Structures are given as C-alpha cells and as structure tokens.
Write the structure tokens for this entry.
Amino acid sequence: RPLAPFDLYRDGMGTMHLNGREGMTLIAMSGLDMAVWDARARTAGVPLAVLLGGTVGPVRAYNTNGLWLIPQNRIAAEAEALVAEGGFKAIKMRLGRPTLKEDLATIATVRRTVGDEIHLMCDFNQGLPFGEALQRLHALDDQGLYWFEEPVAYDNLERLAQIAREMKTPVQIGENIYGSRAFLAAVRANAADLYMPDLMRIGGVTGWMRAAAIAGAAGLPLSSHLYPAVSAQLLRVSETADWLEWSDWAAPFLADPIAVHDGFAQIPDRPGSGIEWDEDAVKKYAM
C-alpha cells in the first residue's frame, strides 16, 4: 500500500517542517515499506531493480567511511585507505573545522595524498551559521570540490537557495528531507543543485521513487544517503542517478555485503533488495 501523505507546516520564516510525531511514523513506515518491496521482489524471483523496471549492473560510488573531523596528522593515511578500499574514484571528507585555515589544510592534505583525479565531496553536517557559511564557502569555492553538502540547517530553504545561487560549487542536500512532499518543496525553492534522499526519511522505496520522479522531471542529479544495498538498486531505476554513498557499517550483520571494485558497486543478480542477513551475527548482538 502506498505511504500516506504527511502534514507539513510552514513556520514564520516560510520554512517547511514535518511534525515530529509524524516524522517518527514515517521512519517506521519506511522500514516496513522496504521490507514489503523486498518481499515482492523475492516472490517474483527478481532483483528489486528489475521489479521496478530496470536492470542489475554497476553503480558509481564514493566512499564515506572516514575523514571525519579527525586530527590533521591522521588525514593522509585515512584518505589513502578510503581510496584503496574499493578502487574508489571519489571520497567524502567532513569540513567545518574551527577555522578556514584548517579546512584548507585538510583539503590540501587529501589532494596531495590521493591526487587530482579523485573527486572530493565535502559535508558540513549543517554545522555553520548562515553568515559564516557564506564567508567560508566563498573562500572554498575555488578548491575544485564536487559538492558542498548541508552547509547550514537542512530546512532553511531560503538560505540554502541563496548559497546555491552564489556558489559555483554545487550544493547538495536531501538526507534530512522527510517525505516526497518536503522534497518537492525543496526543489520548488531551488534550495540545492543536487539531492541525496535517505531511505529512512524519504519514505522507503515508495518515497524514493516519488522523489526520483520529481528530480527526474526537474533534471536534478540524484545521489543516495547510506543504505547502499537498497539504494544501489533504486539508483539503477532513477532517471538522474548520480552517486551511491557507500559505507560498510552494516557489513558485520550481512552475509554478502555489496562490494565496490574500481569505484563501482555491483548489484547482485539475486531476488530481492540484495540484503541477506548473517543470522549468527544477528543472534550474537540480539537483545
């Protein structure tokens, strides 16, 4: 059954919000939605991407496994390890250190380590106040970064739109957008150049497909936020598919985690969403 719409409300500044209780409901329903789609694909005996009208195949991926706000003396080794994990051609770092000088030093260290051919995404995790964001991003706009992710609060659409207008580096948002109606509101506000829905918040497979249709109609590149096994399947059927965010955080619980070779994640040719649980590991950590 399709997910029901959720109530959005507009605050005094014109920003769209989802009620907290309904946000938690959407998160719970997203998990159920993904499970139902997995069951449908297994019943049909095809991968989820095929059930949705696509094919299995490679999806280009970037590594998000590290480069948090760690000490400078650890950055080079971690950047090198991220590239080597799967022959990645793109990795993501976190910026928004106490000073611009430190952010510039981080970028320089990573560039010197991995070379100019590796795409560098950066994520501010909503950590900058608007005034500082304008100053910091203008200063970083000539660093050749692939995108600026969530420089300010995710739902401050008016300010995000201003940042997107002023920067030549694309602005990326989406992981904190709850539901396809809020996704449409962000697109209408021109809040970003790029979007990356999160399956837990967008509404599972059903919500993702709605968001993908909106992004496709608007010609906006669509990447994913976490959940690489399922997200890879959905990117294969998204008109404006861009990048898969890859991490191995769930690998200890999976019998056959999705792997990356030469920078591409390969969707397994087996029924369902591609997730097979390691039941012994699940039992070990069960409460």
Observations:
- Residues 1-16 have pLDDT under 50 and may be disordered.
- DSSP finds eleven helices and eleven strands in the chain.
- The first helix runs from residue 20 to 44.
- The longest strand covers residues 58-63.
